[in-house]
Design brief:
Largest sheet: 3 strands, mixed
Number of strands: 5
Helix content: 10-25%
Number of domains: 1
CATH class: Alpha Beta
Protein name: Oxalocrotonate tautomerase
Shape: elongated
Distance between the termini: 19 Å
Number of helices: 1
Structural class: alpha+beta
Length: 73
Amino acid sequence: MPFHRFYCSSNLFTKEEKQAIAKAITSFYHFLPPFLVIVNFIDVDKDNFYVGGEPNDRYIRINVTQSANPVPE
């Protein structure tokens, strides 16, 4: 089960852009049922994200985890 997390500054993406990204990621996993593909956008305030010791309000960090279970024969 793929889980994509987007840590990004608030208002970096519009609601429509988030949905388009989620649909594009889901379509990449065409071999899986869509309900197994998870995309999560996490807004992080400037006061909580620092780059080089300085607050930053234009960033994105993407974390992808993949869980897989063996399929019984």
